[in-house]
Design brief:
The protein has 258 residues and is mainly alpha-helical. It is 58% helix and 0% strand. The chain has a domain at 99-245. It has helices at 27-30, 59-117, 120-127, 135-138, 145-150, 157-169, 178-205, 219-245. Residues 1-10 have a biased composition (Basic and acidic residues).
Length: 258
Amino acid sequence: MAPSNRRADDSPSPAPIYLPTPPSRDSESAVAGALAFSPDTSSARPTSTTRLGESQTTRTEFVSGLVIAAASSTLLTPQVAAARGRATLEQAYDRYVPRIIDGGAFYKNELYGAVAKGDWKAIELATQEPPKKSKSDRALADGGIARRAAMAGGFSDARVLAAMDLFASTFSESSISAKTKGMKAEVETLRTVVKSMQAAAVAAQSEGGGGLFAKKQSKSELAKEIQSLYVKGGNAYNQYCYLLNDGLPISLKKVPFL
């Protein structure tokens, strides 16, 4: 890049920002056995061979039939649990994944453009959280939910990260699975990135630093910081999607990478 004649405290020229690439891990070793809701039950369905009373049924045959029926019922229990698990996964997918996909599209397009141009106000708005419930909200029919939701940034915790966190929990039952832990770890990375982006955007528009920044930083320094945060967040989002997609039932569409 050619040297710039700008002073250190001026806004830098838009710098090229490269979108992170999807993870290239071995899907079999990364999260082997972590998916809780997609067991292969195609050949697990038991069939009873008991036939009671084609002629006169003896007591021994009757008791034998009860034992086999009870065993068949027991064998069916995992199938019923798996079916319920898939139904729960599908419901959670319909509820949360559209928000995750929309958040990724926003990150890749609108937020990318704001970071590339050094549009600090746009970055601030993109990562801002909705305000707390006020007295005026209580007078509204929905308690002000719609009003506050509209004020959440396009890649804020309230709009995107909360959905990512909740969907990650879907892959656990009685205990937290490795898949859920991995997905939640990426969400926590994204939370740190979003908070840091918000702080950098506010600092760039103020007279000094503050917030997460110990000292005043020039806009060029903040621009480098936020570009680094953008790539870090993009990698975390992609890794989350990688973990989400690995082992996802074929009936559900995979979440695209950035």
